[in-house]
Records
---
Amino acid sequence: MLSPSTYTTLFLDRDGVINRRLPGRYVRSWSQFEFLPGVLEALCQLRPLFQRMVVVTNQLGVHKGLITAEDVRDVHRQMSAAIEQAGAVIDGIYFCPDRSDCRKPASGMALSAQREFPEVDFRHSIMIGDSVSDMQFGQALGMYTVLIPSKEEEKDAYAALQVDERVDGLAQFAHQWLAKSKRSIL
């Protein structure tokens, strides 16, 4: 691991990291979106430590016709507004609506973020997610990977997965990362 201060971009999955995942279903509207405990505070704590904070999320429900791309964008607009109201900013939100090369573990969303923010260096980035595909996405790009092992259906796959760090949630990551950052300054 590099010094915490050398990590400049934080990539975040959405469902299961920022908001409560709806197993077997999709968040179709803002009324179904529920921030996980401590997430808003964690984002506020992490914001000063990163040049960029980016959300990358697979949203296959669009391809399946269960939600529209505009519905996803509306949820993201309201999520961003709530995060800003809490005191943090998400610099970019990228979603893949289908099974194309943008879908994690493929790197399409990360490359889109890098086109928008050319200073993004994947070797100095962190990927936080709750799925095997999130970790594969980060690893393929050379990112530091942090797993929130919350998907019951991936429990067996988690055991064999090699990641840099495992945490119970974004709040725990923020607490630990802040402590590491303070130690590296001293």
---
Amino acid sequence: MTIAVLGSFSVVAVAAGWTLAQRWVGRMRASARIGLEPHGQARAPAPIVRWLADAGIEGDPGVLFRGWIMALAAGCVVAALVPAGAFVLGIVALGPAVGLVAGRGRADRRRAAQLPSALDAMAASVRGGSALRVALHDAATVGPPLGPELSELARRADAGMGLAEVVGAWTDELDHGAARLAGASIVVAATLGGPGADALESAATSLREQADVEREAAALAVQARLSAAVLTAAPVVFALLLTSVDPTAARFLLTTPVGWICVAGGCALDAAGAAWMARIVRGAR
């Protein structure tokens, strides 16, 4: 009987989480506006889309968001039934957030690495006599995240929008140095036609040189990143070891309000320290 009741409660909790996520996404779809969202892709809450895009995570943001809500509902059930379930709930709740923080800027780095090849492909297409809109389609084969964005730029240009306006909106939204340089070269090529291929090739060369400098700086920062990772993981590992060998500590942390406050405070401080160290490492680069 107890198992049946608990099973029914679990099903209800998961279903409630799914329904909540569906309604939330449904309300946000009408108001969310993603400037370079691929044509026909389902809308999702704007902050979720921005964070996933910034971390370079592919997939339908709406599906990922609903899956997280369902996992939270299941984690609440586990936390209510299992003494150590609070850790499961904490991992489900904070794990995606930690992943998004750790992956901040990943899409920009991937896009910057793809830009030189895309500009070279556009230059070759323009030298061959193709219109710049066609060259954008040719360069879209570089793959995500840059490929779908170039396809969207070409689609908007095909729909009658001015290419300079479309590219300007793209660079303003990204607000990234490599994208601004590439956008300026594309506008020059759109103005000059065939001779503008030189501007595309020059921008590709500059971006490659910049990427070489950044890779060298990243290699020099490896030790700092490893130290930051160890310092971030050490409190979590120590807490897990403590609760596994000392039942009294586990009961205090997991079953008392003061223990919950300690766990929440420790997680918050650890996350703040991780963010601070990550910012220092990025600043050094």
---
Amino acid sequence: MDLSRADVARMLDLTLLRPEATPDEVVALCVEANELGVGAVCVSPCNVELAVNAVDDGIVVCTVVGFPSGAVDSRIKAMEASLAVAGGASEVDMVANLGLIKSGDWAGLEADVADVAAAVPNALLKVILETGVLSDAEIVEACRVARSAGADFVKTSTGFHPSGGATVAAVRLMAETVGEDTGVKASGGIRDAATARAMIEAGATRIGTSGGRAILDGW
């Protein structure tokens, strides 16, 4: 794969979502992001404004909504997303309502995603599917519905679910389903260059990671 270190850096969402993360740790993440030249930092909603003021021009701030369970009323997710964008976030990673996916309530899932998409029309929206708890058929249909409802990306995992994080198989299936017009973010357990490379080769166009330096040093 003919990608330079700089190419890969721009694909990284350098992430700090631990609930105990301190303001100093968020600033340190942003300093590291500036040094590495990554595409984005991904922080909790309460840290959006702090991150916006700490990253260099060209690095966007991403946040999460309905995190990590997704079992939140979609109106709350929409309000959370709207407040985050008002605070400077350019990208929103929402956790889909997994119960709707598991029960096959595709109309409900479409409404869940569409509510957030409507609330932040100028932000890039990624929908987290928590693929470790889904069958292949559920992954395919959830990707189709999320895309139809306004998602710009589908994303594998929160990194907080006991089912695990991203897998090459899930990323490949997601990429095959959504095609080139919708991005695929692989996230959860990606901490080295070999794993990142495998995800990119499978079709990932973004990588969510707390191990950006290790990935880039190994590339």
---
Amino acid sequence: MSGPARVLFRDTRIVAPAGPKEQLLDRVLRTAHPGASWAEVRRLVETGKVSVDGEPERNPQRPVRAGARIEISMTARRREQSSVLPRGAFVYVDAHVVVVQKPAGISTVPYKDEPGTLSELVRAELGTPSGTTQRGRREAPLGVVHRIDKETSGLVVFARTLAAMRALKNQFRFHTVHRRYRAIAHGKLESRTFTTRLVPDRGDGRRGSTDNPKLGRVATTHIQLLESLGLASLLECRLETGRTHQIRIHLAEAGHPLLGERVYSKGFRGTLLPAPRLMLHAQELGFNHPETERPLRFEQPMPDDMLAVLAELRRSSARR
């Protein structure tokens, strides 16, 4: 028989510890609950169970000052995510495909019973729920062709027919889709290419690279340095393949984790710079239209939260 379920969190009041600088909320909570995982701490915050100085807080990476009063209330009602997409989220829509600008903080597809995911919001906005009919023909559900991480912002394409989904999946499978990201990483990098074999478990429960040529799948990321920012670098990352967490893993294994990185920053020897979330943005997306085969190319600039971090890094670099 299995033992009793562990109780991770209880109603608790915590005072943020003193230190040379502000600490991130999730780190303060995890220090106070060493048995909890990063995912469990993040979910605690995102479901509205945590307040800071009396105000509810749903951003796990909010910087908190020394002495801040942090309260966990397990009876607090869950605060659901927005039921509508931000204005301007739809970049391109036709009968075959839809391209959407995903905000940071929502998942592309549901995980367990997670509400308010991008696929659900897009389907609701389009008004074509799964299984409806049009002119006597049963429509396919909104087709998930690819996904980006919850904390990553940027462009995502969905298919609106089965034929479009097959065509787009083939383009991703044969690496003919154009994808470029903007990223802010720790340290100073030179332009280079990473090619490794990625496995689901590198030995510590996390995804990562292996030297075994018989394991994993090849992943290639082309990195171009756009701007040196003192303790950080602004990068363009071009994906040749599209493995899970590929950019995050390649940069972290090279000693340059992204700002806001929690999963792959363990072992980083430098100072982790504060960021409100993972500093990664899917800025460019290009593919051939699944019906007409016409090349389509889309670009969305970095969102305000990344621009704010970038501006602060520039100011800090100029003062050095």
